[in-house]
């Protein structure tokens, strides 16, 4: 699951959302924002970025770079 690209996820980033009551059960993140979350790792950086548990949250949804992609999953 790691090594190729980081994955855009549907969650917006918020420093305070997970402190709210609605985040206590199956949180999906805030309804809007300016920064999207990327998860997973990619090969072109320091070792801790290559972990599947890595989360990155400083890029706007229009940011483009070779280390960001999507992962297609089928049953």
Could you explain the architecture of this structure?
0% of the residues lie in helices and 24% in strands. It contains no helices and 4 strands. The model has no long low-confidence stretch (mean pLDDT 76). It has a 4-stranded mixed beta sheet, with no helix packed on it. The protein is an all-beta fold and 75 residues long.
Q: Structural class of the secondary structure composition? A: mainly beta
| H-E order | EEEE
Give the biggest beta sheet: 4 strands, mixed
Report the sheet-strand fraction.
15-25%
Shape: globular
Q: In what order do the strands lie side by side in the largest sheet?
A: 3-2-1-4
Q: If you average the pLDDT, what whole number results?
A: 76
Write the layout of secondary structure elements.
Blueprint: E1 6-12, E2 36-39, E3 55-59, E4 68-69
Parallel strand pairs: 1-4
Antiparallel strand pairs: 1-2, 2-3
Please name the defining characteristics of this protein.
75 residues; mainly beta; four-stranded mixed β-sheet; 4 strands; globular
């Amino acid at each position: 699951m790691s090594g190729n690209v980081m994955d855009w996820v549907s969650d917006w980033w918020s420093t305070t959302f997970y402190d709210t009551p609605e985040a206590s059960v199956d949180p999906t993140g805030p309804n809007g924002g300016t920064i999207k979350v990327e998860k997973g790792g990619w090969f072109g950086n320091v070792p801790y970025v290559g972990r599947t548990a890595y989360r990155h949250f400083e890029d706007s949804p229009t940011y483009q770079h070779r280390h960001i992609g999507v992962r297609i999953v089928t049953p």
